[in-house]
Design brief:
Blueprint (H helix, E strand, L loop, with lengths): L3 E6 L9 H15 L3 E8 L12 E3 L6 E5 L3 E2 L4 E2 L5 H12 L3 E4 L9 H8 L4 E5 L27 H7 L5 H15 L4 E4 L2 H10 L6 E3 L22 E5 L8 H13 L5 E5 L7 H14 L3 E5 L6 H6 L3 E4 L9 H8 L4 E4 L4 H4 L6 E4 L4 H13 L1 H9 L7 H13 L10
Parallel strand pairs: 1-2, 1-7, 2-4, 7-8, 8-9, 9-10, 11-12, 11-14, 12-13, 14-15, 15-16
Antiparallel strand pairs: 3-4, 5-6
């Protein structure tokens, strides 16, 4: 299926290997394998690159079909692109030069919520698809839908509730923010959610249910990992994979491990991931917990995407203890693809991917005692672990995911007649 597709995300996995960036880039590759002429556009700022005078764009990658949009001026509250004399005309020029038939947006950060409107104004007949990866349009708290105090899960946004989290921001500004974002998102032809849970959150926020399709994320094809599962050991190995931050539940996991060590349970926990851009208080907390739980708990640091399959294959169970409404963590798919059970929090998209007692175990979030209990069950019941492994659910291949997206795109009726 041949068409020109612009894939746009809020960064590039070579600079910031988050789940959204990784999936967007994987799908970009799958579009190319499907016969599309594709261009990847990742927005970044001074955290990863410095500006280059005279242009908003910088090259990245060896093939010449990947660009960075340097966006150093951005209103995070309104998710608004405020560089009207630099970034905005440069985006329009890129669109006129490449003339995509499809623009596939994966995030609005740094790109700006105006991005769909710029596409529509520049290329009126272009089809616009947006994958919803988190809750940024709904929630100013970094798209987490977690209260700013007490880590309480938020079940729905409203100007009053949002103002209670950010008392220094006037209540009416939250009303304006919501109207601003909904108006600009009205230019999107179809939304896609990787989970039913995330779709429902956006429906409750006000997006039309008919405009949101559910397409699970897929994984790229890969060679079998070199590492083999440890066999015949009575010392189970647990693994954590991902950035270390308060919302990923790392402190909860370390506290659970500390409790199990105190009662004498024999196990090993390998924590893979770095802690970029975290507050000093959080770093101090996890440093203390790592010191108290060593050597049973091993802090193994950041890892490359290319190594994740070997690292996951080398543990008996992957733990995803997030305390926010995770949508579709790639690490769950990585573990399930390798036949590993997953121990995850029973909220958000995680609860859709892991069925308690079937292909893993689920526990209440932010509860070290409950997490320790589940880890103990897996450590002491080899038959349970083997049964959960046997029922691991193979995720879709990214090429199948791309075909699902292309079928969705083909079905979009051009509803706007070219005015120019």
């Amino acid at each position: 299926m041949s068409m020109r597709v612009l894939v746009a995300a809020h960064n590039h996995p070579a600079l910031h290997p988050g789940g959204t960036e990784i999936f967007a880039h994987d799908l970009f590759g799958a579009y190319k394998r499907a016969g599309c002429e594709a261009l990847f556009l990742g927005a970044t700022n001074q955290i990863h690159r410095q500006a280059r005078p005279g242009t908003s764009f910088q090259g990245i990658g060896p093939a010449g079909d990947e660009l960075l949009l340097w966006s150093g001026h951005f209103d995070r509250f309104f998710m608004s692109q405020i560089d009207l004399y630099g970034v905005v005309p440069d985006i329009a020029e890129l669109l006129r030069d490449f003339r995509p038939e499809v623009v596939h947006i994966h995030h609005l950060l740094l790109l700006g919520a105006e991005f769909p409107h710029i596409v529509r104004r520049t290329l009126p007949q272009c089809r616009i698809v947006m994958t919803l990866h988190d809750y940024y349009p709904i929630c100013h708290h970094d798209g987490l839908m977690v209260r700013t105090s007490g880590k309480e899960l938020c079940h729905g946004a409203s100007p009053d509730r949002c103002h209670a989290c950010f008392k220094d921001i006037a209540l009416d500004r939250f009303t304006l923010r919501e109207r601003h974002l909904k108006a600009l998102l009205s230019e999107v032809d179809r939304f896609v959610s990787p989970s039913r849970f995330l779709k429902q959150r956006f429906v409750e926020w006000g997006l039309s249910e008919d405009r949101i399709s559910v397409i699970p994320n897929g994984l790229p094809p890969r060679n079998a990992p070199a590492a083999a599962r440890r066999v015949g050991s009575d010392r189970p190995v647990f693994g954590y994979f991902g950035n270390l931050n308060p919302w990923k539940g790392v402190a909860v996991l370390l506290e659970a491990a500390r409790q199990l060590i105190a009662e004498g349970l024999e196990f090993e926990l390998r924590v893979h991931g770095g802690a970029p851009f975290q507050r000093e208080s959080f770093i101090d907390e996890i440093t203390r917990l790592f010191e108290e739980t060593a050597p049973t708990v091993q802090q193994r640091g950041p890892y490359r995407r290319e190594d994740v399959a070997d690292l996951v294959a080398a543990v008996d169970c992957t733990i995803v203890p997030s305390i926010w409404w995770e949508n579709a963590p790639l690490v769950i798919q990585e573990a399930q693809a390798l036949g590993r059970p997953v121990l995850a929090s029973n909220i958000g998209g995680m609860a859709e991917m892991i069925e308690d007692g079937a292909n893993g175990l689920t526990v209440a979030p932010n509860d070290p005692r409950a997490l320790a209990s589940a880890m103990r069950r897996l450590a002491q019941d080899g038959a349970l672990a083997r049964r959960l492994s046997a029922h691991a659910r193979e995720p879709e291949n990214i090429d199948t995911t791309a075909r699902r997206y292309l079928d969705l795109i083909e079905a979009i009726e051009p509803s706007r007649i070219e005015a120019a």
